[in-house]
Each structure stands twice: as structure tokens, then as C-alpha cells.
Write a structure and sequence with these properties.
By secondary structure, the chain is an alpha/beta fold. It is built from 11 helices and 17 strands.
């Protein structure tokens, strides 16, 4: 897999595909993790005297200009972080080339404004490729998207390689899943129908799988436990869900106790209950103390922890005990590598100040699910 460090980039025009698809509200960036993730490659290109063009999406599937999704806010953020001039380039598809200068960065306007982007239009892909000497794919989260700004340009560029962030994530996944390592998985969050095939895949390489969040509620309900007024995705009367019990997987461990409350508010009080003692008015808000201890005992001597989705309503202090206990024990295990999956989990890391205390790397759930399907990243065939 050819990376940017394997190529002489001095005096070359680089077209870097970054991922600046960040949540924005009231003209403020709510989470900058994806932008921060991209800075290492950009700084490397600057220090090696390359000409730099960057492009990305913000939002999905527009095919025309929407001011609300302009990369102007990204431009201002990058200028503040990098202390260099950022030029936001609009209408670049109608320019023969871009007059680039060293020590400046040229940010192309949102690729989703371009007709044909998500359909991997060949002419659009060739146009992107014509803008550079070297295409650098640094958006791992879009590496499974067959778009013009990903696969299309990689196919037609003179030279294609991956950026530093992409390389680290791809290399880590291949290293972790291609070796005989002891893996424990924690799967939470919601959308059981979207995760069911993934859970079956991950069960093959996991020593044990612990379940939390709404998915735990769904599986408890399917297994004839009463869950009171707890949140569920599952429809017990839908015959399409008959395979969602995961009964054939003997390494899945369902909660034997949970924390419940009769309402959800910042002042709510919760009780620890065995799952066969849940009342009709109870709402499951966190995993129970016995189950949390079981998780902690099982991650003590493993190599890899794969944690997907939140296990409780950690945003409320009284419901966050399970999340904090697991994070605390992970932080004390210096030999443990953790793959943290999903935006909610990253928020919990920030909220409880574990970002710098845990050896982890973050990946979005869609990308990991796509990788697990075949344990392959198809776009790297162009990085040779």
C-alpha cells in the first residue's frame, strides 16, 4: 500500500481527499475529530514543499450549490489551526487548472455540489485527476464510497496513494484482524437490524461479545424478558426479525442485571435490578453492576477491545456509571488496544476526559462494518 511518505512530493501538486463532513449547528463545528485527523497529512505536505489542493464533502448528495453546506466554515477553521492562507475555490470544474502557490492551501468547494459525484461519473473523475500530479486519499471513512472524489480520481490520477491517517487506520485494521489476537467486543447503540449481520461476522473473531444499549433491550425482549418501558427498535410481531435472536452464537453474553429508572431526567434515580425483576414502569438506562464486572474481568487479559455504540444513557450523570467504569479500566490496561466505533462513544471519551488516557483509534461504524464484510479495502488496489 503506497503512502504519501513513499513518494517524492517536493514541487508536486497534491490533491488530498480529506473528510471534513463534520456536524455543524448555528454556524459552529460541534465535533472536529475528523478535521484534526486530517491535519497530519496536510502538515506533512506543507513541510515537504508540495503544492496543496484539498477537497471534501460536507453533507451528502446535493448535486447543486447549497450555501448552508459551503466549506467556508472549514476554510476558517483550517486557517486558524494551520496558520496558513486557505483559498476556497469555487467553479473549479470550469477551470483548466488552478494556479497554486507554495505555503498556501487551495480548498475546493464541497464535492457534493458537483453533478455526478456520488455516481462516480467518469468525466468528473478525470477532471479531478487533471488537477494534480499525485492524488492522496486520506479519508478512510469514505474509502468504501464509490464516488468520483474517491475511486474515480484514484483510477485516473497519474499517481495515487494514501495519506497518513488513512494508512494508520487501514494498517491497524489489517494487523488486528489478520492475526491471532484475543478480541472482546462490546456492542451497544441501536439499529439492531443494521448490525445483525455485523454481529454474526464479528462473533467469528471475538472471544466474547457483550451487549448494551437499545440492542440489549431488543435481545432481552426477544428472549422473553420483560423490559418495561425501555427504548427498543425491535418489533416482536415482525417475522423479518426472527433471526435477530442470535441464538446460534454461543459467545454472546446478554446482561444479567441492569440499571433502571422510572423516568429520564438529570435528577432521575436509578436502581440495580436483575433482568427477571424488571417492572412494567421501569426504563433500562445502563448496564448493571454484575454485568459490568463481568465485562471488566474479561477485558483484563485481552489484546483488542472492539467497542461499538453506547451502552447506556451516559449523557445523564446518574446513568453513566457503566460507561465510566469500563473507560476507567481500559485506561489502566496499558497493553490493551481499543477500537472505538461511533460518534456517541467518542463523545463519551471527551465528556469523561479519557481521550489522552486510552490507547485507541476512532472509526465510524459504517466504515468498520464495510471492512468486516470481506476484511478488505478495495480502493487500495490503486495505491501501488
Amino acid at each position: 500500500m503506497l503512502s504519501i511518505k513513499d513518494i517524492k512530493i517536493n514541487n508536486k501538486i497534491l490533491l488530498i481527499r480529506s473528510d471534513f463532513n463534520v456536524p455543524i449547528k448555528n454556524n459552529k463545528i460541534l465535533s472536529d475529530i475528523k478535521i484534526l485527523d486530517s491535519l497530519e497529512t496536510i502538515k506533512y505536505a506543507l513541510s515537504n514543499k508540495a503544492y496543496i489542493i484539498i477537497f471534501s464533502n460536507l453533507g451528502d448528495n446535493y448535486n447543486k450549490y447549497f450555501p448552508l453546506f459551503s466549506l467556508e466554515i472549514i476554510k476558517k477553521y483550517l486557517e486558524k489551526k494551520l496558520k496558513v492562507k486557505i483559498n476556497l475555490i469555487k467553479n473549479y470544474l470550469y477551470k483548466k487548472n488552478i494556479n497554486v502557490k507554495k505555503n498556501e492551501i487551495y480548498l475546493l468547494e464541497n464535492v457534493m455540489f458537483n453533478n455526478g459525484e456520488i455516481k462516480n461519473n467518469e468525466n468528473l473523475s478525470k477532471k479531478y485527476a487533471s488537477l494534480c500530479d499525485i492524488f492522496v486519499m486520506d479519508s478512510f471513512s469514505y474509502s468504501f464510497m464509490f464516488h468520483s472524489s474517491t475511486y474515480g480520481v484514484a483510477k485516473f490520477a497519474k499517481i495515487s496513494c494514501c495519506g497518513l491517517s488513512f494508512y494508520k487506520k487501514a494498517n491497524n485494521l489489517y494487523t488486528i484482524f489478520n492475526q491471532n489476537r484475543k478480541i472482546v467486543s462490546i456492542i451497544g447503540g441501536c439499529n439492531i437490524n443494521k448490525k445483525i449481520l455485523f454481529i454474526k461476522k464479528i462473533s467469528i473473531i471475538s472471544y466474547k461479545i457483550f451487549i448494551g444499549g437499545v440492542i440489549a433491550n431488543d435481545l432481552l425482549l426477544f428472549n422473553n424478558y420483560k423490559i418495561g418501558k425501555s427504548i427498543i427498535d425491535y418489533d416482536i410481531n415482525d417475522n423479518n426479525n426472527k433471526n435477530n435472536s442470535l441464538e446460534d452464537l454461543n459467545n454472546i453474553i446478554l446482561p444479567n442485571d441492569v440499571k433502571t429508572s422510572i423516568n429520564i431526567s438529570k435528577n432521575s434515580i436509578c436502581k440495580n435490578k436483575l433482568i427477571n425483576n424488571i417492572n412494567s414502569n421501569d426504563i433500562i438506562v445502563d448496564l448493571g453492576s454484575k454485568y459490568i464486572k463481568n465485562i471488566i474481568d474479561n477485558i483484563e487479559n485481552i489484546d483488542i477491545l472492539l467497542w461499538i455504540g453506547s451502552i447506556g444513557i451516559f449523557e445523564i450523570s446518574n446513568f453513566s456509571n457503566g460507561t465510566k467504569l469500563i473507560l476507567d479500566n481500559i485506561s489502566k490496561n496499558k497493553n490493551l488496544k481499543s477500537i472505538i466505533v461511533g460518534y456517541s462513544n467518542f463523545i463519551s471519551l471527551k465528556k469523561f476526559n479519557y481521550i489522552k488516557k486510552i490507547y485507541f483509534y476512532y472509526i465510524d461504524s459504517y466504515t468498520l462494518f464495510k471492512f468486516i464484510e470481506n476484511f478488505n479495502i478495495p480502493i487500495i488496489k490503486y495505491f501501488t
